UniProtKB/TrEMBL annotation:
InterPro entries, alphabetized: Aldolase_TIM, DapA-like
Catalytic residue list: 134, 162
Signal peptide: none
Protein keywords: Lyase
Gene Ontology molecular function: 4-hydroxy-tetrahydrodipicolinate synthase activity
Native source organism of the sequence: Salmonirosea aquatica
Residues where pyruvate binds: 204
Entries under Pfam families matching the protein: DHDPS
This protein's record includes keyword Ribosomal protein: no
PANTHER family in the record: DIHYDRODIPICOLINATE SYNTHASE
Family, as annotated: Belongs to the DapA family.
Protein name as it appears in the record: Dihydrodipicolinate synthase family protein
Amino acid sequence: MTWKGVFPALTTKFTEDDTLDLSTFDLNLEAQLSAGVDGIILGGSLGEASTLSNEEKDVLVKHAVEKIAGKIPVVLNIAEASTREAVRIAESAADLGASGLMLLPPMRYKADERETVAYFKAIAKSTALPIMIYNNPVDYKIEVTVDMFAELLELDNIQAVKESTRDISNVTRLRNRFGDRISILCGVDTLAMEELVMGADGWVAGLVCAFPRETVAVYRLVKAGRLDEARAIYRWFMPLLELDLHPKLVQYIKLAEAHTEIGTEHVRLPRLPLVGQERERVETIIRKGLDTRPDLPEYLKL
């Protein structure tokens, strides 16, 4: 598997009666594939992972694998409190045809460095699937340091990092220490172009769920060295990308999906749809983005 390019962290689509909405999932997936994404990630933070049952995760993986039919990788996020359950989910994902895994540190317990490394290694040793470590100390309170990565990369199937420390210089630290042994994918929408310019291999994106073509265009233009064109799109995109930084990023991005007609606003409790001034503020940002949406170059040929 190649950890490179744009990997949408897909939202999980629900019906009005709170069941999986696979038809809307397919609508969004087709938009992603047409835009040229390089893989998808299921069951991440944006995918409301903490509200999904294991059975629902299995349904999503199986359905996505069948729909994609090998065109791009299908990656499942694992965010569990216990090592045993994380291993079980990894085994199930492999059985269902997933291409890889993204791993968060242990949930609901602030593990120390030794415990965090042991957790990741136990999962990696239980599967042959390629693995990307999700390093997000801002939201999940556990940082995977460069020294910890030195231990983790002893295992061949630990291959990539979703870099969400908010420290752009971490791209350089990782590259200086490990060269191309580890693939680096930016995990913060508002830092994506900066990290790509500094050598990141890809982008685990959020607003791509509503704006797939613009996201892939920025990535491909940067990698083609067409920075002025990429910068112009990125500047237009920034107010929308900032919706990814809020605790209500799920509601914000699902509202954007509804406005671009490739999703709905339906969220799972305890989340609630946006109302009042907050809704008006977010819709103003989305409408302005749509009204000024840029014409894109033929980026798919890059």
